Amino acid sequence: MNDEAVIRVEHVSKKFCKNLKTSMRYGIEDISRNAVGMPSRCGQLREREFWAVDDVSFEVERGETLGLIGPNGSGKTTLLKMLNGIFWPDKGKITVKGRVGALIEVGAGFHPMLTGRENIYVNAAILGMSKAETQAKFDSIVEFADIGDFLDTSVKHYSSGMFVRLGFAVAVHCEPDVLLVDEVLAVGDEGFQTKCFNKIGELREAGITTILVSHNMHTISNFAGKAVLLQNGRATYYDNTAQAIKTYNKLFLLNGEADHNWEIQTLHEGNNNISFNTRINKTVLTPGDDITLLIDYAATKEYRDVEIDVVLLSSSESGMYFQATNKAYDKVVNLLSGKHTLAISVERAPIHNSVGRLAVSIWAKNRAEMLFWCRVPVEFTERSYAHGNNFFRVRYETLA
Amino acid sequence: MDSRLVTTYEPDNSLKKGYKGIFPEIFNELKANRWLIFQLFKKDFLALYKQSFIGIMWAVIIPLITVGTFVVLNGAGVFNAGAIAVPYALYAVLGVAIWQLFAAGLIASSNSLVLAGPMITKINFSLKSLVVASLGQSLLSFLIQFCLVVVLLVYYRFVPSAWILLMPLLIIPIILLTMGLGFILSLLNGILRDIGNMLSVCMTFFLFLTPILYAKPTTGLLAVVSTYNPLYYLVGVPRELVLAGTISEWKGFALSSALAATVFLICLVIFHLTETRITERI
After folding, report:
1. CA-based nearest residue in chain B for residue A20
2. What residue spans define the domains of chain A?
3. Of A1-10, A142-151, A294-303, which range is least confident?
4. Following CA atoms A137, A141, A143, A149 in sequence, which dihedral angle do they give, to the nearest 10 degrees?
């Protein structure tokens, strides 16, 4: 074992059962076998079982931050729970050096009836802090949580933000050597998120090793030096986070198909009075290119003053680069009767090394009737940062 | 960083480590987690009574109502408690107090893992501590109920034997039995929720099956059942010692205590060997 490796994962697999009743039977079986000292035969799949994590290996060195990414259900949380010892691997071996702190769900140990003060003590104990440690850090926890007079109020009366702040405050104060973070920073307001990242940064400086699970690729690329991409339980290790993110982003568009063989998805195509057909100039763009969508339509009547939404979605479920309607540009669009072509162009889209979708929807009658909705996959290639002229124009200057 | 602390997770970990180290391992785990056990107990306690005016005094109400019912039934001649040398209320309240240690303790501990389900699937901490802490509530209730016994002693001007001072020792066997069964049932209940439901029903049945609210019958089926019922000895003998200062069935008590200790040790070892497999099934 590499001496610097703090976390070592060797061919680790974990299986789960899809059916609850079968799972109950297997549970009794496993426990009975273990109880009488027989090996649990966990290496093989029984009926209705599947590998949630399948033969995963990687190492994390001291002070490193590893990003764990993958689509929903790819096994990220299961892997994280195994690293924390909540679940035990069915195959392989995990070795962790030092105290492990896990932020799998903030405030998981809180009881709603107890006050903030009582919950700090209970939660700290559950997270492995001793009495002396808790007492020594109590003030610091309260200060970090910033819940003011609510310290002696039942947690059930807290706002969700206060709840999360208190949970995070306790968790980061247990001074782990290894910190496992599962998408918990997505909650809480921006001010608190900044505080959390500062705290994680501080811990990192002190030599803590971090594994970060997130769907936010911005977070991953900012914090993680290396990444593991999980797909259906199988892992690929990347020394280069950017490469991992690009592969991850493509997952959502390709669905296993070969590159560039993406279809324009038409999700709604008008009614008897109007029909549409969509074309696009090119789907692989250089940062700064125009994206032009041509929509041919044939209408038997005129639709006046339609509203057209244009959204440029990033590949992750929630993110978007840009969103607008023609109203925002004071542009009145009428769909005339007969056969015409509507050209919609997003000019000089400054998007770098990413994939996304251009979504267009057309509404009539003051948004009471949707005429058309389509999604077009687009890819932006990488470009040397040295150019800069195809990006948003940003000025950097020192003012007197 | 404490680099000496190296944790390994692999299947059948305990089997590979061998059985020799099991008891020191369990002992060290519980010792290291004393503070955690106390905090978990405190959490249960506060959560249970926070939104209640009567609070912990509910511990008194349960035996009072149970015993009260039987006092009435006994007085009306519907129910015959048999030949009891001491005041019936005293006999029954002390019996129910010891019984509740077992019944309430077992129900609490068998539900401990299930109730903490959302927590144990997100935080890794000592599951044994969770089960042990769940017994705290019934110990505290026993303490309160014992105060009720003292009140009754004063009321009836009844002088107990000196054994009353050894009460904490006399209840050790029944606590061991409760804890042992609690360990194993909490695991099983984690997988099959039927266990928890079944237990609540069984406890009422066992309460009537065991001579707690009545004297042990001398003939008939119930007499035979009682002879082989360890709970009868574990409740009845401490009660007899405290109230009368005599012990008529020391052999039964010794055997039952030995059984309780064995059950405790076996269940503890089973729990230790299998606890790593429970979280994923909860």
Report:
1. B281
2. 62-84+98-255, 265-398
3. A1-10
4. -120
